[in-house]
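User: Could you go from structure to sequence for me? I need the amino acid at each position, not a summary. Structure tokens:
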């Protein structure tokens, strides 16, 4: 029984010993460092902590899910990255614990127990004979050691004397500093990681909020008090003239709210642009007020120039819209087409309305003051043109489906014609398409909308058609035939307005096929039908101009008419029952601030300093040992030594070529000072193969 217990204990010791050896092995450390290096490269190349929709659009559904599962969108806080840091910390600490005591003993020891046989077996070793007394040899050896910067000790033992010397003990300190620096850096990194937050969340102390709520409505269990021990990196958007005292920290698929010990008020936001419309520089004028002391600090921050206060850093990271106030006309495209209603809105707010029994929601998303786009100039060269301000909004129906629009405030000139632009994105990731509505003589939508309202009015179109029929020789007779012809023409105009030119052609072909006409007559009738529709459309347009007090029809009006007809046929595919025409705005900008607190940064800097100094010691300080053993080689009749054999040996922890030369110079000089006149018996350094 006792034997079995001892065997079991040996096996346990053997297993624990193997695990400890593996944990402190260089191979494990290199593997862990390689994984961390790869992860750091990924974190540098792949922009971190962006909205998931941006990643979904860039990578597609499959790779988005793969990268999300691996946690690459927040790689420095993902569980496996923190686990590797902990493992590397354990490995480095174990190496430090295992080797530091031995190194400390080594740099204090002179190894005065070295024997003759072991010294002669050294790679760097030579021996010679001396006629000088042992005391003289020891004295001169110590003098030479002192001259070369070695610390030496002398030990007398059984008829022989050993002089042991060493220098460069700081090399061993370098090993300790290098590993200790790694430990300190890892501890600092873990302090500033999200491990603290994840632990609180795992213990149920902090709950992750996933809803888009105002700060006042976020539950208390999703708030972190100011002055927490761990570091954090949060963000907050504050409009001009507003203030905030929290930062939002992304965690899992939601966020937690970090309360700050001060208030941040944005007094003003400034931005400069390049000719291409890209931001050149932007900065914020801030007022920081300490909640406890009332201390007030006013400072302007810009990119890479943060405001620092009591361990907190406030960075200028982004900008956006802070709730620009909008004025717009909502033109009806269906129902009571051509009528408008003056409304107001605000970025990041919604407006709901009912149309034909269906509920719609206008979600104002963004406002852009400058829209610089490449265009072709008069000489054919491409140039940058500012299209002016625009508003981006989504129209969401009762089923939750949304179409995104980007409508411009001012008409834009294309090839001599000015258009009101409306960019349409029917679904996420789809290419933006544009609706071009020609501007009238007054650079407004009034003429087009009035013309469009006339075409959508069935009674008005029928009246115009009847007037045209009455002016024909056959139509002058009046009666049911004239009314039927007018209704038929109105039907064709309605088909053109609702479905486009191709649908009109199909309708005419069906009507002609029912009459069973010869091909020549059918073609003439087809062309005649199109001319009649064209005449009705032109008459409707002329009456629209006359209603506006315009009597003279110009080439500009003719061009407007042709382009307006192109727009009319695509409005059914526009996807919205109204056209939002922005007319005015009060621009309010928002500054995006990144608030960080990094108590571990001090330890990272300290560890980096220790690591640098330690590497310097390891590479540039040589840890060397030299021994000189003096033994009697012959005695006289009185038993006194007549001459001595001197064994010189040395070792260098780095085993480099420099020590070959240093050992040769030392041994040559010692032999010159203490050796016999005839040195032919002196042995040279043996091969170190």
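Assistant: Here is the amino acid at each position, in order:
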């Amino acid at each position: 029984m006792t034997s079995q217990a001892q065997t079991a204990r040996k096996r346990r010791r053997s297993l624990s010993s193997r695990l400890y050896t593996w944990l402190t092995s260089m191979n494990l450390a290199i593997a862990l460092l390689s994984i961390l290096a790869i992860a750091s490269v990924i974190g540098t190349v792949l922009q971190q902590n962006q909205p998931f929709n941006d990643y979904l659009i860039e990578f597609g559904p499959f790779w988005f899910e793969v990268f999300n599962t691996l946690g690459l969108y927040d790689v420095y806080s993902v569980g496996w990255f923190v686990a590797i840091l902990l493992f590397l910390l354990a490995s480095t600490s174990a190496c430090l614990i295992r080797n530091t005591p031995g190194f400390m003993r080594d740099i204090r020891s002179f190894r005065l127990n070295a024997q003759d046989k072991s010294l002669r077996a050294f790679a760097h070793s030579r021996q010679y004979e001396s006629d000088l007394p042992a005391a003289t040899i020891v004295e001169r050896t110590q003098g030479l050691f002192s001259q070369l910067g070695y610390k030496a000790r002398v030990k007398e033992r059984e008829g022989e004397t050993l002089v042991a010397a060493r220098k460069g003990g700081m090399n061993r300190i370098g090993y300790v500093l290098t590993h200790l620096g790694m430990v300190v850096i890892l501890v600092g990194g873990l302090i500033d990681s999200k491990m603290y937050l994840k632990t609180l969340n795992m213990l149920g102390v902090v709950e992750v909020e996933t809803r888009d709520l105002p700060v006042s409505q976020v539950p208390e269990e999703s708030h972190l008090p100011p002055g927490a021990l761990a570091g954090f990196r949060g963000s907050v958007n504050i409009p001009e003239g507003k203030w905030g005292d929290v930062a939002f920290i992304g965690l899992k698929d939601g966020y937690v709210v970090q309360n700050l010990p001060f208030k941040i008020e944005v007094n003003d936001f400034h931005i400069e642009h390049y000719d291409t419309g890209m931001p050149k520089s932007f900065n914020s004028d801030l007022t920081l007020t300490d909640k406890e002391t009332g201390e007030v600090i006013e400072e302007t921050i810009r990119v890479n120039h943060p405001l620092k206060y009591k361990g907190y850093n406030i960075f200028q990271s982004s900008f956006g819209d802070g709730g620009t106030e909008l004025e717009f006309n909502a033109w009806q495209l269906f129902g009571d087409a051509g009528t408008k209603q003056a409304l107001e809105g605000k970025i990041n707010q919604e407006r709901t309305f009912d149309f034909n029994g269906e509920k719609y929601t206008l979600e104002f998303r963004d406002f852009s003051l400058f829209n610089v786009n490449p265009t072709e100039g008069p000489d054919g060269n491409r140039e940058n043109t500012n299209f002016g301000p625009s508003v981006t909004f989504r129209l969401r129906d009762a089923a939750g489906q949304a179409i995104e629009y980007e409508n411009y405030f001012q008409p834009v000139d294309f090839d001599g014609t000015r258009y009101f632009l409306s960019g349409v994105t029917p679904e996420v990731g789809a290419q933006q398409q544009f609706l071009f509505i020609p501007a009238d003589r007054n650079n407004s939508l009034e003429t087009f909308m009035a013309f469009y309202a006339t075409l959508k009015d069935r009674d008005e179109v029928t009246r115009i058609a009847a007037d045209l029929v009455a002016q024909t020789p056959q139509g002058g007779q009046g009666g049911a035939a004239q009314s039927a012809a007018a209704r038929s023409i109105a039907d064709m105009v309605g088909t053109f307005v609702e479905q486009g030119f191709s649908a009109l052609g199909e309708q005419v072909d069906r009507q002609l096929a029912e009459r069973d006409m010869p091909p020549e007559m059918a073609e003439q009738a087809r062309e005649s039908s199109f001319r009649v529709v064209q005449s009705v459309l032109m008459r409707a347009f002329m009456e629209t101009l006359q209603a506006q007090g315009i009597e003279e029809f110009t080439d500009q009006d003719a061009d407007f008419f042709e382009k307006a007809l192109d727009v009319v046929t695509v409005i059914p595919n526009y996807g919205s029952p109204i056209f939002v025409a922005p007319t005015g705005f009060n621009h309010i900008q928002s500054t995006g601030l990144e608030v960080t607190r990094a108590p571990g940064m001090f330890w990272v800097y300290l560890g980096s300093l220790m690591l640098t100094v330690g590497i310097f010691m390891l590479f540039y300080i040589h840890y060397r040992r030299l021994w000189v053993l003096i033994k009697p080689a012959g005695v006289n009749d009185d038993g006194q030594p007549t001459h001595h054999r001197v064994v010189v040996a040395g070792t260098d922890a780095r085993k480099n070529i420099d020590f070959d030369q240093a050992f040769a110079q030392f041994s040559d000089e010692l032999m010159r000072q203490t050796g016999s006149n005839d040195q032919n018996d002196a042995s040279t350094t043996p091969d170190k193969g």
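One structural detail worth keeping in mind: The chain has 16 helices and 26 strands.
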